[in-house]
Specification:
By secondary structure, this protein is mostly helical. The protein is built from 5 helices and no strands. Helix 2 packs across helix 3. It starts with a helix and ends in a 6-residue tail after the last helix.
C-alpha cells in the first residue's frame, strides 16, 4: 500500500504524520508523492507508524523515476 493511500484511509495529514515520525511536514509530502526516499531510520519509523501496512518496498516502489 502506498503511503498516500494509507494516510488518506486514516484521514491523516502530512503534518500529523510528520509529528508522529519526527520529520518536517515537507519531508512527509515528498515521501508521500514519491519525490524523495526516506533515510533507513526514517523508513523504519514510517513502517512502525503505519503498523507495517506500508513496507519499505512500498516506499521504494512509489518513487518517481528520473528525479
Amino acid at each position: 500500500m502506498t503511503l498516500s493511500d494509507y494516510m488518506r484511509g486514516e484521514g491523516m495529514t502530512d503534518d500529523a504524520m510528520s509529528k508522529k515520525i519526527g520529520v518536517s511536514r515537507s519531508a512527509v509530502t515528498q515521501y508521500r508523492l514519491g519525490d524523495r526516499m526516506p533515510k533507513p531510520e526514517i523508513m523504519l519509523r514510517l513502517v512502525e507508524a503505519t503498523g507495517n501496512v506500508v513496507s519499505p518496498l512500498d516506499l521504494a516502489s512509489g518513487l518517481r523515476r528520473g528525479k
